[in-house]
Structures are given as structure tokens and as C-alpha cells.
Design goal:
CATH architecture of the domain at 14-206: 3-Layer(aba) Sandwich
Distance between the termini: 80 Å
Number of helices: 25
Helix content: 25-40%
Low-confidence stretches: 1-6, 604-670
Structural class: alpha/beta
CATH topology of the domain at 14-206: Rossmann fold
Strand content: 5-15%
CATH superfamily of the domain at 14-206: Cobalamin-binding domain
Radius of gyration: 28 Å
């Protein structure tokens, strides 16, 4: 089927190339996602940027990795292949934390699962190399970026080599890649052999010649870290401390006493003008029309009416890979750039007046954490917000407030929401409460989602998150502000179970917090060990990489299930797991009828005590009194409770009547 290339999309077929008058493309971009020409998709940014610099680019989206011909549909490119697994790591895309296959892929037409392989970057590169032996291959995107050096792979439970070696690619363009990809393209276009491109920031290359490497830190050999977890943690922390573009050193990782994988320092942050240029490129802002028949690409719905205002995050959460991928230095777009894109959004036929989001990794970061970061970089071994805010931290929401006001004033805009995440501790450190007031007044739709992740300070310290006292102060401030402006709006906290440092004790502490709050979350995220995070390093090694001191880690699926169930202790399906966890932790005091208890006992002993075992009739019930043959017991207990309420005006007497009635019922049975 042919599609009119005058619609502005990049070529996806030979006929498209003919229509555009292109005999041979400069680059062919192979991607694990569907082709969506929108600045929220990495392949669109890189392809459009190359096009703006005079290079021709075609897209091969989700090729059939079992068919050699699928990689040849656009012919051999003049300069090289670009390969990315897509906007997500292919393994995260395919599997839940329990390693069960997901049912839907939002980055595929119609949401169909299975259109890309596991470890997609490696598979695509091997497919290319099988057909084109000498052509340069440059890999990038989140999967390649976070696997650029030896890394722990959760799905195989192994320490894998640098993806550069397993893929057979020539270079990795890591991080966001705008600067490095243009330098690579210009070097290749000048006639330089890809093996000689060893000098570009934001790239990783391989060599056997140690003499070409200078001013570098040598990491432990791959064979060493594969066998020694302590050495793995040490190696990882060296990498973590060298992610800043201003002060990072070059890193060398040896393999087999011959091959060296070399990571150059990260690319420098984009200036505001450069960021504006990236987002002003001629994106079509939707998926390719060839996907209409399949129902389109579901992922577009999340970003179609959203605006990216910044990049990077100095929050430094240990479970997040942003430090490795985007870095800690905030890069922003100008108001003019964002307003111009907003005007484009309002012209869309499907726009209903609602901008869904204005933000980035953290919505309310609109400048570097301190003045020195843009000249001397971020502190390699210190955090800006953890465990306490740095004395040099600049806390200022004024620019973000003004931006939001300008967006609200646009014609056709009814409401501007913020959904990409508010860093509540940063908000609380701002003595000026203007942003909190305007957030509650204009940018929340009944519920505001925030991410405390946990409430045990022992776990929060491992997460790299502020203490629970900071979150509690935010909860109060949010509640007070909504009361002041006359709105009834709620907080929805994101919570994480089984993070390193969390034992059953801390999981129960969280359950008790939720009990007192009167809230049970609908969803709970079990900690997911993805490549190149501090938390993943702790999960694999059982060590804090910064101190090399032991950290408690649960890897047992059953204990992880218990920790997850405790957060949703009111769910009837979780009763057995919650009961087991409480007994195992020695917290039977939380099993009973008191208002402080998490669950009620299920079955009675003949002597009036409580049996820890569960009858078959009780298996799928959250009732404290069973079902079926115990219906009469429940009826008598209900009557007893009502009599107790009438007698005392509270449940205290009702509880006493319950116990007495239970004994009487059992006497009758005997």
C-alpha cells in the first residue's frame, strides 16, 4: 500500500524514497517502536535532527527479526544504521516485575504484544550484521544507554557484558544523544572510518589499542565483577560518580585481557536555544498513517496533548535511571518555545481544551539546582536534596508559575494539568506558597499523584527519598491549602514494595500508616531492578555501592508477595499473605477486632481461642467469621454487635458481646 509522502513523514519504503527523489539514504533508523513522529519519541528527535543537518533518514519500524529481508527494505544506507529498542527497555516492555509476559505493548499498532524481540537492540544489530558485514552500526536509546557497560540483567539473573560487545555495533550514543549523533554523522560523512571515531563525548567505543586512551579511570575486569559482587558494586559506583558532563572522567572496562570498552564523558547539556531548536523541528505529531487500520498507536494518547518543558533531574532517587541517561543538570525550553507548541496542540481537531501535562522527569524543576552546575557540574558524591537539601540549593518556582499562567491564558485552553510528577520536598522548601496555591487552584483535577514511595525512614534512606516527616508536612500543607481555597481534592501516593532495605517490619510499618490514613492504594509497584540504578546494584549485590556496607534485600518471591499484600491488606485476596506476614514478624497484635488491627481472625478454636489455620470455606473470603456453615455465627455476631452499640454507643461493648456469643455458639455445637 502506498502513502502520500507529501504528508511529511520520513520514508518507510522504497517507494517513499522514489517519491522523495532519494536514491540512497544516508542513515536507516531501525526501531523497536512503531514510527511515531512526535518529540516524545527518541527516534523522531534523532531522525528529524539529522534531517535538519542535511542528512536523509528512513525508518524501519519493528522489523521481523526472523526474516533477513526485513532489514533490507530501504537498501543499504550510505553512512550507517542507527538502532534503538524504542522508548522503553525491551525487557521492561515485555515483562512485569514477576517476569510474566505483559498483555499489551502501547508502542505497537493496536497495542499488540510480540512485535519486537527480547533484548531488541542486540537482536536487530545481529540481524543487520548478518546481512551487512562492514556497515557502521550506531546504537542508542534507553536500552543501549543503560547497558553501555557491564550490567546486572534481572531477567537472566546474570551480569552481562557491555551491549556494545553483544550487539556487534561500532558505537553507542548514550544519553539523549542530540550532540553526539550529529558529530558522529559529520565524522562518517567526512570519510572517517567508524573505528577511528573515539573522541566524541556521549559515546562508547571498543578497541584493543590501549595507547589511544588517555586521562581515564580503569574499572575492574569483566571476569572479576562477574564473579565478585563487591567488585561489581565498586565498579558501578565509579560509573555513577562519573555521569556529570563537566567533571566525569573517561572510563575503561577490560574484557579478556584484550578488548577494552571505553566510555567517553557525557555530552554537554543543551542550551535553551538548542532545546528550542530540537522541539521546533517539523514533527507530524502523530503516528504514521499506515497504522490507522490497526487502530493507531496507543502511546500517542499519553503525549499528544502534553508539553515537555524540561530535561534531567537533580532529585537523585536511587531506583531511577535518569542520572545515567539524562543527567542531573536541568535543561529547559523557553516560554516562547513551549507556548508555540501549545498553540499547535490547540489546533488539533481532537483537542478538547485540556493540556494534560507540562513537565518532564520532574515537573517543578525549571533551573539547575545551584549556580555552579552549569560551569563546574553536579557534585559527584553528594545529592542536592538528600538526605537534606544542600545549602547551595536554589528553590524557586517563579518561572514555572509564570509559564503555567501564560498557558492558561491561551485561547481554547480550558485547563492545564500537571501529571508528570511534582517533587513535593522541593515544593515544601519554597517559603513562597504561591506555587502550592496555584497548583491546587488551577492544575489538579480532584487528585494529585505524588511519589513518597514509602514511609519508613529506613527504607526511604535506601530509596534516596526525603524523610517521612517531609511528606507528612506536604500532606498537611496540601490539605490546608485546598481547605483555604474551598476545594475538596485528594492525594494519591505512589508506593513501592520490596525495595532494598525493606523487611517485613518496614512493610508492616507502611501498612499501619495506610491504616491510620484510611487509604488503600489500588496499585502497588513492586521494586523492579532495571539496569544501571543504585537500587538495582543493591538488589544484586546486597551492598550499598557508596559504602560497600550490607543492605537487606528480599529476592524471595513469596516474601515479596507478602510485602506487596501488606500495602493492600484490606483486599480479601491478600488475607492469607497478610496473616502469614504478621505471624512471621511477631505482630499477631495486629490480628484481631481492635481498630488498630489490620485483619480479623478467621476461625475459632473450640476453647474460644483463635485458630491460625484457614478452613476451605474461608479460603476466598475476607470475612472474619467464615462463610457457608458459619452463617449462623455471623448472624448472631451481628445481633450481638447491634446490642453492644445500643448499650454503650460504641463498638467496645459490641466486641465483648461478640466474644461471648462466639463462646455460646461453640458450646451449642459441642
Amino acid at each position: 500500500m502506498r502513502y502520500d509522502m507529501s504528508n511529511g513523514f520520513l520514508p518507510i519504503s522504497k517507494q517513499d524514497m522514489i517519491d522523495e527523489g532519494i536514491e540512497q539514504l544516508d542513515f536507516v533508523y531501525v526501531c523497536g517502536d512503531a514510527y511515531v513522529d512526535h518529540p516524545s519519541f527518541g527516534h523522531a528527535i534523532i531522525a528529524r535532527l539529522l534531517q535538519a543537518h542535511g542528512y536523509t533518514v528512513g525508518i524501519i519500524s519493528q522489523p521481523d527479526w526472523k526474516d533477513d529481508e526485513s532489514i533490507s527494505i530501504l537498501g543499504v544506507p550510505r553512512l550507517g544504521f542507527l538502532v534503538s529498542a524504542g522508548n522503553m527497555d525491551s525487557m521492561v516492555n515485555h515483562y512485569s516485575v514477576s517476569k510474566k509476559r505483559r498483555a499489551k505493548d502501547s508502542f505497537t499498532p493496536g497495542g499488540v504484544m510480540g512485535k519486537r524481540p527480547d533484548y531488541a537492540t542486540v537482536v536487530y544489530c545481529n540481524l543487520i550484521r548478518h546481512t551487512y558485514k562492514k556497515i557502521p552500526i550506531i546504537i542508542g536509546g534507553i536500552e543501549a544507554s543503560l547497558r553501555r557497560m557491564a550490567h546486572y540483567d534481572y531477567w537472566s539473573n546474570k551480569v552481562k557484558r557491555s551491549i556494545l560487545l553483544d550487539s556487534g555495533a561500532d558505537l553507542i550514543s548514550y544519553g539523549m544523544g542530540e550532540r553526539s549523533i550529529i558529530e558522529i554523522a559529520d565524522a562518517l560523512a567526512s570519510g572517517m572510518d567508524v573505528k577511528d571515531i573515539t573522541f566524541i563525548d556521549g559515546t562508547v567505543f571498543k578497541t584493543k589499542d590501549r595507547d589511544i586512551i588517555y586521562d581515564a579511570i580503569e574499572l575492574p575486569d569483566y571476569d572479576v565483577i562477574k564473579e565478585d559482587k563487591r567488585e561489581f558494586a565498586r565498579s558501578f559506583y565509579i560509573q555513577y560518580c562519573n555521569t556529570d558532563p563537566f567533571c566525569a572522567k573517561r572510563l575503561i572496562e577490560p574484557y579478556d585481557n584484550s578488548t577494552l570498552v571505553v566510555q567517553n564523558p557525557p555530552q554537554k547539556p543543551l542550551s535553551q536555544e538548542e532545546m528550542d531548536e530540537v522541539y521546533a523541528l517539523p514533527y507530524m505529531r502523530t503516528y504514521h498513517p499506515s497504522y490507522e487500520e490497526a487502530g493507531g498507536v496507543p502511546a500517542i494518547s499519553e503525549v499528544k496533548f502534553s508539553l515537555i518543558s524540561n530535561r534531567g533531574c537533580f532529585g537523585g532517587c536511587n531506583f531511577c535511571a535518569l542520572t545515567f541517561h539524562q543527567g542531573r543538570i536541568i535543561q529547559t525550553r523557553s516560554h516562547e518555545s513551549i507556548i508555540e507548541e501549545a498553540k499547535l496542540i490547540t489546533q488539533d481537531k481532537d483537542f478538547k481544551g485540556y493540556i494534560h501535562d507540562v513537565g518532564g522527569p520532574t515537573a517543578n524543576f525549571r533551573q539547575p539546582a545551584c549556580k555552579k552546575q552549569l560551569t563546574r557540574g553536579a557534585c559527584p558524591t553528594k545529592q542536592c536534596l538528600f538526605p537534606k537539601p544542600c545549602n547551595n540549593l536554589i528553590v524557586d518556582h517563579s518561572d514555572y508559575i509564570q509559564l503555567l499562567r501564560e498557558l492558561r491564558a491561551l485561547p481554547k485552553v480550558k485547563k492545564v494539568f500537571i501529571r508528570s510528577g511534582i517533587r513535593f520536598d522541593y515544593l515544601m522548601y519554597d517559603k513562597d506558597k504561591t506555587f502550592l496555591r496555584e497548583l491546587c487552584e488551577y492544575h489538579v483535577s480532584g487528585q494529585l499523584k505524588v511519589a513518597p514511595e514509602h514511609i519508613s525512614n529506613a527504607v526511604l534512606s535506601r530509596l534516596g527519598k526525603p524523610s517521612v516527616e517531609v511528606y507528612n508536612s506536604f500532606v498537611k500543607a496540601y490539605k490546608d491549602m485546598n481547605k483555604k481555597i474551598g476545594k475538596e481534592q485528594y492525594l494519591v501516593p505512589y508506593l513501592m514494595s520490596s525495595h532494598p532495605g525493606s523487611t517485613l517490619k518496614e512493610a508492616i510499618e507502611l501498612a499501619e500508616y495506610l491504616r491510620d490514613l484510611g487509604y488503600m492504594p489500588e496499585q502497588v509497584q513492586d521494586f523492579y531492578p532495571t539496569p544501571s540504578t543504585i537500587s538495582t546494584c543493591m538488589y544484586y549485590t546486597g551492598l550499598d555501592p557508596a559504602t560497600l556496607k550490607p543492605v537487606y534485600v528480599t529476592t524471595n518471591p513469596h516474601e515479596k508477595a507478602m510485602q506487596r499484600a501488606l500495602i493492600q491488606y484490606r483486599n480479601p485476596k491478600n488475607y492469607d499473605l497478610v496473616h502469614e506476614a504478621l505471624v512471621k514478624a511477631g505482630r499477631e497484635d495486629l490480628i484481631g477486632f481492635d481498630k488498630k488491627c489490620l485483619i480479623k481472625p478467621r476461625k475459632m478454636h473450640t476453647d474460644g481461642g483463635w485458630d491460625k489455620k484457614t478452613s476451605k470455606s474461608d479460603k476466598n473470603s475476607n470475612s472474619s467469621y467464615g462463610s457457608g456453615k458459619n452463617a449462623g455465627v455471623r448472624k448472631n455476631l451481628k445481633n450481638a454487635t447491634e446490642r453492644g452499640k445500643n448499650a454503650s454507643g460504641s463498638n467496645t461493648a459490641g466486641t465483648a458481646h461478640k466474644k461471648k456469643t462466639i463462646r455460646n455458639v461453640h458450646k451449642k455445637k459441642r
